Amino acid sequence: MTPERFRTIVDAYGADPRRWPDEERAAAESWADLHRIEADAVLAESVSLDAWLADHTVAPPERELVERIVAAAPTRRPAKHRVRLWWQGAAYAGIGLAGGLAGAFAVSFFVLTGQPPQTHDSPSYLASSFDGSTADWSGE
Amino acid sequence: MDITGPRALSERDPDADLVARVGEQDPAAVRTLVSRKLPRLLALATRMLGDRMEAEDVAQEAFVRIWKQAPHWKEGEARFDTWIHRVALNLCYDRLRGRREDPVADLPDEADPQPMPDMQLEARVRDEHVRTALAALPVRQREALVLNYYQELSNIEAAALMGITVDALESLLARARRSLRAQLADSGFSKDLP
Fold this sequence. Notes:
A: 63% helix; rod-shaped; B: mainly alpha; 0% strand
């Protein structure tokens, strides 16, 4: 550390050693300790300006601005909604599957018996397809 | 005050995980990122432009770009904080270029109908004079001072962001501080300045 470099550091970064470059801070502080009068004269020129700069504050963002910015962000739906949608989808799929199975059962019944499915007013509604007409398997 | 020095290459970006969650559209991460970065961006733009409303516009525009970039953000190329500073500075420069008037002339006299205690009034007057003096600096000097002093970027980070050497940054900082001292001395509010 030289007197010139010490002055350059203080002129650029101010009197607070915490603001000095990391890699030179220890050397600059050591030089200042060894040359107290000279160092203090240099530091005194910056102390007041540092205090003025520190006085300048910027008010924090207002809540309205925060909310506007957050609202503009693309965000996925909360997990609760997604769970509900999953169950709704499963319910619709189940209903569709049940309808399909019922239709398939009715068609197979018709193919095997050659008759449309029996309605509840028929006495044979309790019988299985194998109890009905033997026309399809009379050859046995 | 947390003064950060030059980072080791192996040091992780402290914002990386949060930005990744923002990229996945996590609402909680969005709020956390806004609370972490908005005050910094707003302070940067306010000091660069000397106008709160314009600074808020810049902050909003910067976040629009953050939302677009977050899903594609890759750690390692640049620190996220450095990148958003670059974005905000570019937006500030766009506005500064669009101005015809001297920025200092735009600073309004803020009338306050409420009487203030002496100390509060004095603090406000001091703050106003520093704000005016900052706005009167040449823009590159102001940028160097704002990045290094107020945004607390290290000399290496600030120089890299400005695309200059550390020596050039130190020259800008020294000239900015000399100019500020002279302006504040001329203002009559700086009897304690040498």
